[in-house]
Amino acid sequence: MLIIVVVVVVAIVVIIVIVVVVVVVVVVVVIVGLEVLVVVVVVLVVVVVVVVVVVVVTAWAKQGPAGRKQLARQKALCRTLAYLVLQLYSYFPDV
Predict the structure, then answer these.
(1) Closest CA to 4 of 79, 70, 48
(2) What is the DSSP letter of 50?
(3) How far is CA 26 from CA 12, 34, 46, 69, 85, in A?
(4) In 1-95, where does DSSP find H-type helix?
(5) Cβ-contact 54, 78 below 8 angstroms
(6) C-beta neighbour count of 71 within 10 angstroms
(7) Contact 53, 78 (CB under 8 A)
(8) Cβ-Cβ contacts under 8 Å for 10 (sequence gap 6 or more)
(9) Chunked in runs of 10, what are the mean pLDDT values of the chain (95 residues)?
(10) In whole angstroms, what is the distance from residue 36 CA to residue 19 CA?
(11) Is 31 in contact with 24 (CB distance < 8 Å)?
(12) Which residue spans traverse the membrane (predicted)?
């Protein structure tokens, strides 16, 4: 139980840091005018969020059969998100 609480707290902190970084980068991009940088940041944010979700769900999955079923669903969601990130990246081959 303690591991899940720690992982959730770490995930929340990581998400807050990501939001702050994205806001700073967007402000810089608006001033400088680099639209490609926004795409790179969005892709990186999606990847980091997927990693955090996988870590949280993996800790949760160790709680029993219901957790393992949830982990299987989460893996399918992560595969779908990875596919969508690759599709988004394919629209910007210069990045």
Answers:
(1) 70
(2) H
(3) 21, 9, 16, 38, 19
(4) 2-32, 35-61, 65-90
(5) yes
(6) 16
(7) yes
(8) 52, 55
(9) 66 73 70 65 71 68 65 71 69 56
(10) 18
(11) no
(12) 7-31, 37-61
Q: What separation, in Å, do the N-terminal and C-terminal C-alpha atoms of the chain show?
A: 42
Cα separation, 91 vs 35, in Å, equals 13
Question: In whole angstroms, what is the distance from residue 22 CA to residue 37 CA?
Answer: 10
Predicted pLDDT at 36: 63
- The structural domains of the chain, with segments of one domain joined by +, span 2-90
For residue 55, the Cα-to-chain-centroid distance in whole angstroms is: 11
What is the pTM for the complete model shown? 0.36
Token output for 85? 């990130």
pLDDT at 63: 65
Residue 95 has a pLDDT of: 47
Question: Which tokens is 35 given?
Answer: 């639209």
Residues 6+ apart with CB under 8 A from 90: none
